[in-house]
Write a structure and sequence with these properties.
The protein is α+β, with helices and mostly antiparallel strands. It contains four helices and 13 strands.
Length: 268
């Protein structure tokens, strides 16, 4: 596992790349909500079709957001945290349920980029200086302009939020580096492609020899990284590009002519 993790960390290998289309979710506002002051038990007049666990809800005229910690798909009852703040009960009031955190089916360790599936325009990430994971709760809904990397999910993959919180369903293509699953049984297969098994074994030998204070660890490390260098060349993203050397003035018709200095003489 140490060897696998180290190899996976030195380069954004194509075999670790994953892409997935996720669909944004608009706010849910159908029906009414009721809750007692100081309570965490919320009752909706119309049960959301999908489970809204881990989404956030704003109730009536209360400006606070509450996280929904438990809800079953189709049910009209839900549990929130913390408890409802206002001193009076809310009866058949308005509400707004918002999805803050999104994630991909395949857990991601790093997000490479996102783009709109309709026209291919890229969605830039928001700088940590400009945003935090809760920003989509502070603003009204709108068109997606940026994304914010958020807290990891329970499966260890990255979650992300959108600015602004989506006002309609939209398909977004997410591309990233997969989280590497550790090997735990003899039948498990490493994510490292089979033809590069030698790099995995040599690096594993390095860790083994190092733990025994064995001088053979140096040779194993060198062999491992020789193979890793070969891997990088094989998986280079420019492997199909052809480089052609051209004159500095090739194709240029305007501007000054480039001539040799007089001291070089003629006939060179």
């Amino acid at each position: 596992n140490l060897a696998q993790s180290e190899i996976c960390s030195v380069y954004n290998w194509p075999f670790l790349m994953a892409h997935e289309i996720i669909q944004t979710v608009p706010d849910i506002t159908t029906g009414t909500a009721s809750i007692d002051s100081g309570s965490t038990s919320l009752t909706l007049s119309s049960g959301p079709t999908d489970s809204v666990t881990n989404r956030f809800v704003k109730l009536g005229s209360d400006e606070n957001w509450y996280q929904i910690t438990a809800h079953t798909a189709g049910a009209t009852s839900a549990t929130i945290t913390p408890s409802y703040v206002p001193s009076t009960n809310l009866t058949a009031g308005t509400y707004k349920i918002r999805k803050l955190w999104y994630s991909t089916t395949t857990p991601l360790d790093t997000i490479v980029d996102m783009k709109n599936s309709t026209d291919g325009t890229f969605i830039p990430s928001a700088s940590p200086r400009d945003a935090d994971i809760n920003f989509p709760l502070y603003y009204d809904q709108g068109s997606v302009e940026r994304y914010v990397v958020s807290v990891p999910s329970t499966t260890g993959g990255l979650q992300f939020s959108f600015i602004y919180s989506p006002s309609e369903k939209q398909n977004i293509i997410v591309r990233g580096i997969k989280t590497v699953t550790e090997l735990s049984s003899d039948s498990d297969v490493s994510v490292i492609p089979g033809r590069w098994t030698s790099a995995l074994l040599e690096l594993a030998s390095f860790y083994a020899f190092t733990s025994l204070n064995d001088a053979r660890s140096v040779a194993s490390y060198q062999k491992a990284y020789q193979t890793i260098d070969q891997m990088r060349q094989t998986y280079s993203y420019d492997i199909g590009r052809r480089y052609i050397t051209r004159s500095l003035t090739d194709g240029i018709t305007d501007g000054p002519a480039y001539t040799e200095p007089q001291q070089l003489g003629t006939g060179l």
